[in-house]
Amino acid sequence: MTRYRNGALFLALAAAWGAAFMAIKAGLGEPGAPGPFFETPVLFAAVRYDVAGLLMLGYAALVLDDPLPRTRAEVAEVAVAATFMIAAYHAFLFVGELNTTSAAAATIVSLSPVLTTAVARGLLPSERLDLVGVVGLLLGLVGAVIIADPFGQANLLSENVVGKLFVFAATLAFAFGSVLTRRIDSGLNVEAMEAWAMLGGAFLMHVVSLALGEPASSVELTTEALLALGYLSLVASALGFLVYFDLLERLGPVEINLVSYVAPVFAALTGYLFLREAIDATTVVGFFVIVVGFVLLKREAIRAEVRSARGRPVEGD
């Protein structure tokens, strides 16, 4: 029964995180049909993590004896995660989604494991890319270029291309933050780290929102706005990360990374069902090129996982 439980949770997490791209788009809208947060994308992201961070902190206080970061290394790890994995990632992502579809944004974000591996090779001297790994990295980047489709636009700096570049910048920021937190490795419990990073990231995004002059008065708390915020804060963030932590412990980092490649399917489906977003051929082709790149980069880890799964007795059957 355990493998069925893990499979169900894996699909639930992929669905929750995939549909989050649709919820972001619903809250933002687009030039022809602006949503409640169209003029305030960074504020939208900040409020999402105000709520999610408080919920996560409450959970951390329940399950941990001491949820506070105490040492310099713990504070540094929280600061890095707040800056890159929460604030930079979500500010770029929310701005980027103003001019791209849910499916395209989710597919570009699925490049994260590829970029994380590349950044790790640069910042962690013990890790090096061989020739096949370099090919895998290049394929991942080619996939991102295919999705952006700059040569299919009359203007290389069209809003569509720029929006996808913002999403790529978000993915790169997340990859950079992931590697830096791994390098610091303070030993702080993940629940505490996530909670404080969410709240710290939310604070930074509020500062950026004020600096950009986003008009908070333009936001109307309509049913659509509350549903988008509620879904992103409660389902995608709070519940999503709890499921992620559980699966990370049960499946390991390689298998859980595969969520990045299932989430775009749910982003495309929910984007079509709720927002009538079209799924173009370049997004589909780019997605498969990125997946091939990931497999080449992670081939040894995937092979080890397959061998381990074959030799591991199945629990609960």
Quick summary:
This protein has 317 residues and is mainly alpha-helical.
Structure report:
It comes from Halomarina rubra. This is DMT family transporter. It holds the Pfam family EamA. It is found in: Membrane. It is a multi-pass membrane protein. The protein is an all-alpha fold and 317 residues long. The chain has one domain. Helices cover 77% and strands 1% of the residues. The protein has 13 helices and 2 strands. The chain has a two-stranded antiparallel sheet with strand order 1-2. Helix 1 crosses helix 11, helix 2 runs antiparallel to helix 3 and helix 2 packs across helix 9.
H/E series, N to C? HEEHHHHHHHHHHHH
Q: Main beta sheet: strand number and arrangement? A: 2 strands, antiparallel
Kindly state the number of beta strands: 2
Class from secondary-structure proportions: mainly alpha
Assign a percent range to the helix content: over 70%
Span of the ends, CA to CA: 6 Å
Low-confidence stretches: 313-317
Total domain count: 1
Tell me the fraction of residues in β-strands, as a range: under 5%
What kind of oligomer do you see? single chain
Radius of gyration: 19 Å
From the spread of the alpha carbons, the general shape counts as globular
Strand order of the largest sheet: 1-2
Mean model confidence by pLDDT:
85
Keywords: Membrane, Transmembrane, Transmembrane helix
Pfam family, one: EamA
Protein name: DMT family transporter
Subcellular location: Membrane
